[in-house]
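[Automated response] Your request has been received and processed.

Submitted sequence:
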Amino acid sequence: MVVHIVTFKFKEENKQANIIHAKQILENLQGAVPTLKSIDVGLNFAHEERAMDMSIITVFESKIGLEAYAVHPEHLKVVDFIKSVVEYSKVVDYQRAE
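Generated structure:
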């Protein structure tokens, strides 16, 4: 299994509304992208300086599945929205032993 984790820091303008919308459209990818085995979208409640606003944890059967997800049209629509409302994001991809 391949795990893909992304954390997001959102811009201040319309921050809460954008976070909620991003969560909804990310969760809608489940079932829309065949290689996506699972997605967990988490909204942060920590108030530390280093805290991010939202995270996603997605799981795929293989690196090929992750690569297919990356270019899937439904995922690209989500990416377009998120790029317009976040300051930056960070990613971690790793192979999980099963």
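Summary generated for your ticket: Strands lie at 2-10, 38-43, 54-60, 86-95. The domain at 2-95 is CATH 3.30.70.100 (Alpha-Beta Plaits).
If you did not submit this request, please reply to this message.
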